[in-house]
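Treating backbone geometry as a discrete language has practical consequences that deserve illustration. No coordinates are needed to read the tokens, only the vocabulary itself. For completeness, the protein is quoted in full, as a sequence line and a line of structure tokens:
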Amino acid sequence: MTRQQTIVHIGGYTAASGGGRGDGIVAARRDPATGGLTPLGTVAVTPSPSFLVRHPALPVLYAVNELPEGEVSAFRVGPDGDLTPLGVRGTGGAEPCHLAVTPDGGHLVVANYGGGSVAVFPLDPAGVPGERSDLVVHAGHGPDPERQEMAHCHMVSPAPHGGPLLAVDLGTDSVYRYDLDAASGRLVPRGPQVRMAAGTGPRHLARHPDGRRCWLVGELDGTVTAYELSPDGALHLRGRVDASARAGHVQPSEITVGPDGRFLYVGNRGVGTVSVFAVAGELPELVAEVKTGGEWPRHVVLAGEHLYVADERADMVRVFRVDASTGIPTPVGEPVPVPSPTCVLP
């Protein structure tokens, strides 16, 4: 394992733009055996890098800058996790909150939350974003007058093995499907959007490794909705369950599937838990709900035998070891202090 493979980058909110306490992107060294993180300090001073992603083939990292006039920043990653700026592009919308690189490494796709839109950037052979090639703006609203007064795109999910890009929109209770034309860098709608139950507020989705199933968390109604996923990207409803068994206001954040496809993990803000679901049946079955030690688990991610939980309000990243047979995480060591963390990128 190389030095670069043991580096974790952590994004979060900064004071000037997001009301946070961070300065930019933080690097930490990960011990693959224990899961422990050793913070190495801020490696890129950049405004509110609230979500991060890596290029699939190049040592390049991309961050959204969640600003009123949104930006995306690109960095070359050094052996010890240091970041060298490669460029900044405007996203064409407010408050970009998620981004992804297409599996072929040719394009960067960004979700503008405040703008309710999806932006596309071609990437050159070095992974540097070029001029924006498309901006698709969603229209509509949902029943929640405060959170769904307009479209709010919250996630973009390219299909890992071909097929349409899925764009999850909290404001319109919808998932939009797009084909990306590689030559022009433009998005072509694939049929009408998939509408969820009114007031769901879909935030993020997780795809099963088999490519035939996916699950969406509802930020506003505190649910997990199960879908069968057909090759054309169509979502066929299978039902939904509560994201948490706890009493109180539950606001799910991240959702992810273990690499063996047996368990689903959901971060629950408000009650400070991670729910573990078995997914052998048609609907997810809750097998455990683990306290994270904080109130606001914004992001959860798996790396090897470990689960990392970024608690935005508690200024910490918590490390858990996952039992391979039960899927249940157990906390390891003390929380790692990080200001306003919102994304952990192994």
